[in-house]
Amino acid sequence: MKKQNVASSLTEDSCFWAHVEEALISCKLLTNEGSSVEEKDFAKKELIEFEKYVLDLMKNYAVSSEIFLPGSSFMKWWGKYREITGTSYSSSLTNLLKNDNNYEAYAKGSLTQANVDRAVKRLSVDEVANMVDLECDMWLWLLGG
């Protein structure tokens, strides 16, 4: 991870906010009872790809810390996504975002690989196995199965 003060930096990917809006649409598809199984499956895959995309940007300090401002589209997405996935869901990105201190660390350029590694390693093998079961149950419920 490159360390720098990102408070005033610009997001390197000019399409970042478009990706955020697409992620918000995917959240709506997942919660919409009128969405087909195929639409929900596609939305789920898109959201997982979005998580990877954002994590990569954060690892490289390639996104402005303004994404964490209250009321930003990104924080709206995070609120909806957190509601959908619940507290049992865990990923590298969600573990980072669940800790509000990481927003400030990111803005100061002090979010280290160790922070990321801790977010990933926070869970024991048994907890991961339980989460996989819970995640499957959640997605089955969302898909109407």
TrEMBL record:
One GO MF term on file is:
carboxylic ester hydrolase activity
Q: Could you tell me which residue ranges the EDS1 EP domain spans?
A: 2-95
- Gene Ontology BP annotations: defense response
Family matches, as InterPro entries: EDS1_EP (IPR041266), SAG101-like (IPR044603)
Q: Which Pfam families match?
A: EDS1_EP (PF18117)
The record's listing under PANTHER family reads:
FUNGAL LIPASE-LIKE DOMAIN-CONTAINING PROTEIN, SENESCENCE-ASSOCIATED CARBOXYLESTERASE 101
This chain belongs to which protein, by name?
Senescence-associated carboxylesterase 101
The organism is Quercus suber
Lineage from the top down?
A: Eukaryota, Viridiplantae, Streptophyta, Embryophyta, Tracheophyta
